[in-house]
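Re: the pair you flagged

First of the two:
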Amino acid sequence: MATMPLTGPERPTASRTRGRSRSPLRRRNRAGLYFVLPAIALVAVLFVAPTVWTVVVSFFDYSLLGKMTFIGGENYQRAVADPGFWRTLGFTTLYTVVVTAVLFVVGFALALLVTSKRRGTPVFRTVFVVPVVIGFATASYITLWILDGRIGVINAALGDLGWIDDSISWFGNFGLAFAIVVLMVVWKTVGLTMLLLMSGMNAISADIYEAAELDGAGWWRKLSAITIPLLKPTIALVLILTVISSYLAFDQFFILTQGGPDGSTVTVVYLIYRAAFIDFDLGYSAALSVILMVVLLLLTIVQFRVLRKAND
């Protein structure tokens, strides 16, 4: 009588087990990719493609209604050899440094005041946050309505009071025009700086401050040894955003000063606008845009490295 071999049920091999365990993970990864694809497509269409096209156009002589003629790096050579470009870049850098410093100091002081939980701080916070929601063009036109040399409210009021005989040209002097633009920008954007710094301050545990108070630390000691060191990531974000937005300044100077007096308030973006839409020199405008992009990239890298060393 033949005997049947006694064998147990076939065990799944390691490869089959790994295959079954990986399949749900692969399905989840594939599903996640589907959700991310629209965002990737938007970035590609709205950022990557225009950036690549700008770089390509910068190597051509290309007017708005003419042909594209390859000229290599002549547009970049023209920009480097142009004293007006360096003067514009210098002014943009000066504006960026001043606005960044003033915005950070004022925003930091307001954030400290708001987080102190004194009476009336919600109203105080709202007063500075509301201007953030309006655009730079709107804020610039409001400022122009107040300070315009012909129809400005200030000149009209001073004239009615008999304090002036002739209208004051608020934007006819570089120093005065520069100060007005800086003050307008600070008024419009300091609320955002305050909110960002305030969110970082609120993330610091109150137990740390209580422990410092038990050790006898005063207000300044807590600020310098606790608040500022723990706030460095937020400070880095604020500085990078402010520097980038300041280097891209256009609306306020286009509306308020129109680049004057004597071209002293022309920013790099304003120069790009003139090259593209007044001179119709798209190749040179693209080269200026690429240079500005490289400058912003280098500044961002330098800021990251400096702040990383400070954290270490």
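Second of the two:
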Amino acid sequence: MQYRTMPGDNRRLSILGFGVMRLPTRAGRIDRKQSDFMLTRALDSGVNYLDTAYPYMAGQSEPYIGRFLEENGRRKEVAIATKLPHWQTRTRKEMEKMLENQLKRLRSNYIDYYLVHNLTGGSWDSLMNREILEFLDVAKQSGKVLQTGFSWHGTPEDFSRVVDARDWDFCQIQYNLLDERRQAGTAGLKYAAEKGLGVVIMEPLRGGKLAAKIPEKAMKIWKERPEKSPAAWALSWVWNHPEVTVLLSGLSKKSHMDETLALAGEAEPGMLGEDEVKLVERVRDAYKAAGAVGCTGCRYCLPCPFGVSIPEVFDWYNEWKTIRHTLPQKLFYLSTVGGVMSGNSGLASKCTSCGVCLGKCPQSLPIPDLMKTISKEYEGGLGKAVDRFGALFYKNRNRGTRK
């Protein structure tokens, strides 16, 4: 197992973290026998970073981790990372109550790495009205939380703003060969590292979509270098970045565990040669070419006067059309870009065809026409419903908070 240093506390962490979000289940419950085997195997192989959250596995993840570590006497061997579900807390007092509950669930008197879960620019602004800074400072001063951070699902522009908002120790971002310009992106990865933050990577395989159901042209390129599987190439590409501290993997199947653990034993910054980096870039381009809209993510079209998140809409739509044609993907798009958690909807259905964006797009994309297509084909009637529900949910969630 290779290790890298978390800047905030100089702790040596395994480059592979165990994401306790997709454990084997039986009859709707965590299959303890299979999960215990896999977690034991990971820890015995040198993994020392466990990532969980209050809602993972329908609320079963934190209690499972706490029980496993206590029963096996392995708490001191590992760093636990869990997250504040801020959408379930309206006040600082409720945040404090949530933290106490999580400590009990984890059977621990401290949490090594505590993140504000699923942040966007809008949700961060709301949290600033709920004394989030004071809560985090006191939690750390008390020793109940050792390091503070946040997980990100917002725009690149808002990411740097949140990084600068306080003295964070680390952050967690979605990053893979398809997400260089999405959410935090490569620019955010480098910015966070320059600011002294450790960076934990989630979804390095885009929920497994970089390992399965691969577009034909992309698969043809991978076959030029058959010594690694597509998944191994994708993970190696992430670990190739020196700014990455820990990469999270679900390790949910025994068949995938051997390959991932072996790769984590040799992965180092700069491990890929120039020809290998170009191979990955060709695969990335093949994925993009398979998309329905030729948006490069340059963001010249922004800001939209009516709030449409144009690059994000295109990115999600392309993913849906090419590699993830599922209802959960669509619902996640509607909830995030639709502003359920932030109060700022950027859905395609908000487009009024004003045409302001047309002269700004280097690709000369017919953006208003595409927005009409996406609104009808992808969002459907759910788009307007989410707009109404999201605004109501956001308003009610923030009712009574400090202004």
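The CA atoms of residues 53 and 82 lie 5 Å apart.

-B.
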